[in-house]
Amino acid sequence: MQWQKWCIRLGFTAREGLVLYTVGYWDNGKLRSIMYRAALAEMVVPYGDPGLSHNRQNAFDAGEYGIGMLANSLELGCDCLGTIRYFDAHLVNSHGEPFTVKHAICLHEEDFGTLWKHTDWRTQKAAVRRSRRLVISSIATVANYEYGFFWYFYLDGTIQFEVKLTGIVNTGAVYGGDKPKYATLLNDRLMAPIHQHFFNVRMDMEVDGRHNSVVEVHTESESSGRHNPLGNGFYAKSTALNTEEEAQQIIDPFSARYWKIVNPHVLNEKTREPVAFKLIPGENVLPFADSQSSLVQRAGFITKHLWVTPYHSDELYAAGPYPNQHAGGAGLPEWTRKNHSVADTDIVVWYTMGHHHVVRPEDWPVMPMAYIGFMLKPSGFFPFNPSLDVPPQSPLHGSCEI
Fold it and tell me: CA torsion sign, 383 to 249 to 38 to 369?
């Protein structure tokens, strides 16, 4: 499908659900590649209550149950609004019998506020453009929870992935009058345990070609001295991540850390720096389970937020092909043990994000939507703002430009 300057192929699998292929952007008559394939690679929901009722609840919702198998049939006016294009998903059940999930994928466009604006205070003239985004979404019901998986594509070349969490929280009975240590009281006889939701997204990157590298970027304060007389200096420092081990990283919001996927063979025509997209973390957390626990052994991918591997066709799932039948160590921990080079090659970027849920009384009986995600933003991919050609809106009264 094509929308504005974006060109994307859509797919759907029983395990991953929504899959994007060959994501590209039309730039001056040329279709420039960004990602070859992107999909949810695994998700796991560990509970923090060590009691008998909840200590084994560490479901791999993708690897055990299949996000695509549990997809909803989306409804106009309920799940999606506006002008909609729906796509059906054709799957096979456990008996090998085909079935169809009607309207498993929803595609639509929506307004997203101000794209850019500037008022010249000298002339009192203003220019403003409205932002729009393409929304590609699918929703799955996994037992008591609903998960919405949303890809957004913006006019300025930004890609966003967002998971929306709702449904009914897992609960347990309360015995006696003591306040539970590992849960939130919902009423005098009902509690909801503390828990986490971890998602891993696999992105087979192809930024202006197949051979890419990854660079870590953080900001440092400049030391005081003659070169920094007022002590106000700070700068962004870049470090190439050349091996799988170097690329195993966690977020660091205090240093404004992000990661760039660069193509060292294609340079920005203005800056002469390699073209790139940067991965910007959103909300995130690490697991609180013991490192030797069954959960962490089987879901080792949750111990790092960033993983980078060279492409292998059989490496699709962050916890391995059969997470609930493996004693531990499968998937990303196993594949990266040999510490292969990930510099200037066909790479896969894996991003793990965790939603930490200390349940509120307001989450009962149906939980309002919670959000978690990340962004891929062009960083030297274009020579200037690619949305300068967006035409002004036709306002209800007067003009958007003074």
Answer: negative
The single residue listed with the structure tokens 């998903």 is 89
Please determine, looking at this structure, whether the domain spanning 2-213+242-251+265-378 carries the CATH number 3.40.50.2000. Answer: no
CA distance 64 to 325: 9
Residues 110, 135 contacting (CB under 8 angstroms) = yes
pLDDT of residue 399: 60
Tokens representing 338 are 């040999």
- Alpha-carbon distance 136 to 39, whole Å? 12
> By C-alpha distance, which of 245, 269, 267, 353 is closest to 305?
353
Give the separation between CA 318 and CA 61, rounded to whole angstroms: 13
Q: Are strands 159-167 and 367-378 parallel, antiparallel or unpaired?
A: antiparallel
> What backbone phi and psi angles, to 5 degrees, belong to 294?
-55, -40
Task: Give me the average pLDDT of each 10-residue run along the chain (402 residues).
Answer: 97 97 96 98 96 88 95 87 92 94 96 94 92 96 96 98 97 85 92 97 98 98 95 97 98 98 97 98 97 94 98 97 90 97 98 98 97 98 96 71 55
pTM greater than 0.90: yes
Q: In this predicted structure, what is the pLDDT of residue 396?
A: 63
DSSP 34-47: EEEEEEEEEEEEEB
DSSP letter (8 states) at residue 71: B
Query: What type of residue sits at position 91?
Result: L
Nearest partner of 108 among 130, 140, 141, 132, judged by Cα = 132
Q: What are phi and psi of 289, to 5 degrees?
A: -65, 150
Supply the pLDDT for residue 32. 98
Task: Identify the three-state secondary structure at position 159.
Answer: strand
What 83-92 contacts at long range (C-beta under 8 Å, 24+ apart), as own/partner pairs, is 83/108, 83/109, 84/108, 85/1, 87/10, 87/12, 89/12, 91/12, 91/14, 92/14
Q: Which of 49, 61, 208, 363 is catalytic?
A: 61
Has 111 been annotated as catalytic? no
3 state DSSP class of 325? helix
Catalytic residue among 145, 147, 317, 351: 145
Q: Is 21 a catalytic residue?
A: no
